[in-house]
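Hi R.,

Here's the chain you asked about this morning:
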Amino acid sequence: MSTTTAQMRDLADAVADASVWSMDPAEAGATLVELTRLAAQVSELQARVAAHADTIHVGQDVGASSTANWLAHQTKTTRAAAYGAVRLGHDLEAHASTRRRSAGWVGGCGRSSPPRKPTPTKPRSCNGRKRPRCGPARSRWSTTATAPPTAGSPCRPTTPPPSRRC
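And here is the predicted structure, written out as tokens:
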């Protein structure tokens, strides 16, 4: 895999300075779609390799506390981005169908990477039922309310009740 990655980098270097002004609209559109698909495939492959590197503890020999920290240092990215790549790789390993879809995924909404995590099959709830957030929000360190419920919450109607006059 490392030789294929090196060949891909050489091919990318070969077209890095190519001029695009001579492309007609059809060619530019087709090339843009193919580049987007290629970026999705590379993102998926990067996440899988990051997860494998985490499994075999890459970076531990140089004193890195984790593979994600080592990756952030080597690539000069943020630790959050490196941890995200490692987590995504582990999530894709756990969900093979999501991994297969993300490899051929064409980004939507301006994103050029596969979805971050597989969506859960059930909504998170307490005791199997959905529970709306009613009443004032409470801090876990205090017993007093921190904010009243908003007008659009399930416990307060959006229109005020009619006033009663005696």
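One quick note: Helices lie at 2-15, 25-55, 67-75, 79-94, 96-103.

Cheers,
M.
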